[in-house]
Amino acid sequence: MTKKWFRIGIVSVFLLSLALRFWGLERFNTLVFDEVYFAKFGNNYLTHTPFFNAHPPLSQYIIGIGIWIGSHIPFWHDTVNGLTGSLRSPWTYRWINALTGSFIPVVVAAIAYQLSYRRTFAILAGLFTACDGLFLVESRYALNNIYIVIFGLLGHWFLLLALDNQNRRRSFWLVLAGISFGASVGTKWNGLWFLLGAYLIWVTAWVISLIHSFPNPKLGGRRQDSTEVASPRVSAEGGSHEVEGVSQESGVSTYSPLAPLSSSSQTPLQNLTQLNIFQMLFYLGIIPAFIYSIIWIPHLQLDKTYGFIAVHQQILKFHLQLGGNSPNVHPYCAAWYKWPLMTRPMAYYYQTAKSITEPLPVMGPPLPAGAGKVIYDVHAMGNPFLWWFGVAAMLFIIGLLVSQAVIFLVKEKRFSVPATLSVDTWIALYLVINYAANLLPWVKVTRCVFIYHYMCAVVFLFLAIAWFVDQCLRSYYQQLRALGVTITFIILAAFIFWMPIYLGLPLSPHDYKLRMWFNSWI
């Protein structure tokens, strides 16, 4: 793929995301789901109304800024309500989230490119992210989860850019990474898991480096060296390059990329050991902590009930009192192990009407069963096939890593790793570590949690399935290329099929039931 088509692809992914998020943004003239908190909180900053918030305040600042800007734009005010505490158009408290959410697929694509320098992988990662329902729904309403994701992803992207540069340029990107990670935690505490993933991949790189430093008895005590010739790094420029046996000109691989991973070209992740413990603690420790602390200043100036320490104690107390993962606590409680297979998504909005032309009530229960001929449902549900294929791809990647370790163990007759890891091995380690870092901490959480808490982890599944499809498309074997095309088509078709319940479009009861494949989805 040439640079020109790569840029066209990235712009197209962004425009698709933008259009889907802004289309019909005022459709429901009410507060949808947790807009009853976050839209109100954002407006409270504008009206100087003190309030207690169970999360750090950054996302509410941003929503408040969006409300202020939207209120000064002389259009998109056809419908208004006073549910936020002031007379506002739904567009004013939703548009900034829609704009922010539109950039998430682009950031995911940027991470994929920085991991591999492969343009097809980056385009696929961005496209698949743009075709997810949960991210679409969360971006269309005044909610806070997209901010924890985009700031956490920006932190990882800036870290990768830092590893790809030296000296002052590296320091510049590391500062931005620290700021972004701090902003992620300043949205929700579980933003720490993005930072945890960065530390874990750094520790992994050092462990690999230390293993390499051990003498190999087979080589007379000398350090082990790679006997394979590393292929050249993929250029960021256009043109014909040979990388990992792939002709960039023809786009067809001369090997099967689904075979065990082998040594090959450079990746920024291989530079992780250039960062020492003091740099990590300063750029990815002190700076995030400093950013997190100053984020609180405006809120504590507004609400002087609690100081900095006391407000954190109150937040922790609030979450500990939410109760366990049981339908008795909330009908949509879903423990962490229910997230990957999406067995319990949740409805953010559900309303019925007698006809499409009938205005929807702002408040009140749906019509009695049988009376409503039209259903409006906004379901916080991922693209089922994207999530299921993503789980399969992650398991495949884990299997490749394990098989590679076993093969090398048998070959060397001792615990070791190859002296030079391939780009795809580093990508595999990065995806597995960051997915685990964002999912496994929830194992110990006993309070009621919901499927949207999975957003920070599932984004690494999008990267995993994009990597798998890219490998298929680059394969020498026609069957694997056909598999890659088929997976892509199914993901796109599934997104279109379930789009009405992402956008809250009117459906007949039959069409609604057609999309609720399992009773646990309702």
Q: How would you concisely characterize the structure shown here?
A:
The chain has 522 residues and is mostly helical. It has helices at residues 3-22, 35-47, 58-71, 90-116, 119-130, 133-139, 145-163, 167-185, 192-213, 277-295, 297-302, 308-320, 384-412, 423-439, 455-473, 478-503, 509-515, and strands spanning 242-243, 246-247, 346-353, 374-380, 506-507. β1 and β2 form a beta hairpin.
Please provide a written account of the structure.
This protein has 522 residues and is mainly alpha-helical. It has 17 helices and five strands. The strands form two sheets. The protein has a three-stranded antiparallel β-sheet with strand order 3-4-5. Strand 1 and strand 2 (246-247) form a beta hairpin.
List the helices and strands and how they pair.
Layout: H1 3-22, H2 35-47, H3 58-71, H4 90-116, H5 119-130, H6 133-139, H7 145-163, H8 167-185, H9 192-213, E1 242-243, E2 246-247, H10 277-295, H11 297-302, H12 308-320, E3 346-353, E4 374-380, H13 384-412, H14 423-439, H15 455-473, H16 478-503, E5 506-507, H17 509-515
Antiparallel strand pairs: 1-2, 3-4, 4-5
Helix pairs in contact: 1-4, 1-5, 2-3, 3-4, 4-5, 4-6, 4-7, 5-15, 6-16, 7-8, 8-10, 9-14, 13-14, 13-15, 13-16, 14-15, 15-16
